[in-house]
Specification:
Elements: H1 5-14, H2 22-42, H3 46-61, H4 69-76, H5 79-87, E1 125-134, E2 144-149, E3 170-174, E4 180-186, E5 191-192, H6 198-205, E6 211-212, E7 215-221, E8 228-234, E9 253-254, E10 256-259, E11 262-263, E12 269-270, E13 274-283
Parallel strand pairs: 1-13, 8-9
Antiparallel strand pairs: 1-4, 2-3, 2-7, 5-6, 7-8, 10-13, 11-12
Helix pairs in contact: 1-2
The protein binds benzoic acid (BEZ) and fe (iii) ion.
Fe (iii) ion binds at residues 101, 103, 150, 212, 215, 217.
């Protein structure tokens, strides 16, 4: 038995060779190989790895039912978005996907097509229209469109303790027979990811900002099609080129138009200026 660094790496990789599950074996052997290569490349010291272990421990301690600091770590290291991009159906002509993020809830209120889902959220009025279709261009009727977004103060309803179980700037809408949907909401603003935990410390100590460019989240599901998890970003946002979770794709930047007070596209009359945005979503067949 030799104790050269390479011999230790080889022994650690070989220790998984009898794993029954071939995929688990592949993942564990590759993980050890790359973890050891990282330590060798950086000549990682024991004190530095102990600091790393303390960081991971603090990350675990920051997690509870509503806060998942490990997902935030995966997001800010670009790993979440790498996996999305690797497995995305967009290569077959579908709308590009992006990260789900931590603010989706399974209880968005079902609302009629054309509703106002803002429910008192602060911000300028925004009217969103969209269409959901297949890669062959057929309208997808009765698709479910799950929408959630931050308000003008950069906060999601779930981040406001005063709202408890009330839902704001969040809703579930079904497309009509032509695959169309519409809703009123508020203009989203850029916001920082949570910075009061170890991931925030990591961003601060490495000179990274914590901001995400303004966006609206969509989870669209239609029978016979792969669910699409994506966002639409606000054009012109100062963080489009430096999203802290690397989630921006140029095809997902929407055109937001401002209008003076008056008649809106749904026939309602607005006594203040408002915004509109229109987008066509394409879903990949299963
Ligand atoms: C979000 O867009 O909601 C989000 C995504 C990743 C990390 C934090 C927030
Ligand atoms: Fe978000």
């Amino acid at each position: 038995m030799t104790f050269s660094p390479q011999a230790i790496t080889d022994a650690a990789i070989a220790s998984f060779s009898k794993a029954d599950n071939p995929r688990l074996k592949q993942i564990m052997q590759s993980l050890v190989k790359h973890l050891h290569a990282f330590a060798a490349e950086t000549q990682l010291t024991e004190a530095e790895w102990m600091a790393g272990i303390q960081f991971l421990t603090a990350t675990g301690h920051q997690c509870d039912e509503v806060r998942q600091e490990f997902i935030l770590l995966s997001d800010t290291l670009g790993l979440s978005m790498l996996l999305v991009a690797m497995h995305d159906g967009a290569k077959h002509g579908a709308t590009e996907a992006t990260v789900l993020g931590p603010f989706h809830t399974p209880d968005a209120p079902p609302l009629p097509n054309g509703s106002d889902l803002s429910n008192g959220a602060p911000g300028e009025a925004l009217y969103v229209t969209g269409r959901v279709k297949s890669a062959q261009g057929e309208a997808l009727a009765h698709a479910s469109v799950d929408i959630w977004q931050a308000d003008a103060e950069g906060l999601y309803d779930v981040q406001r303790s005063e709202l408890e179980h009330e839902r704001r700037a969040r809703g579930l809408i079904q497309t009509d027979a032509e695959g169309r949907f519409a809703f009123w909401s508020v203009l989203p603003e850029a916001y920082p990811v949570p910075t009061d935990g170890p991931v925030g410390q990591m961003l601060l100590s490495t000179g990274r900002h914590p901001w995400r460019p303004a966006h609206i989240h969509f989870l669209i599901a239609a029978e016979g099609h792969q669910p699409l998890v994506t966002h639409l970003f606000r054009e012109g946002d100062q963080y489009l080129d430096s999203d802290v979770v690397f989630g921006v794709r140029p095809s997902l930047v929407g055109s937001f138009a401002h209008h003076a007070a008056g008649k809106a596209p749904d026939g309602s009359v607005r006594d203040q200026g408002f915004w509109t945005m229109d987008y066509e979503f394409v879903l990949q067949a299963v």
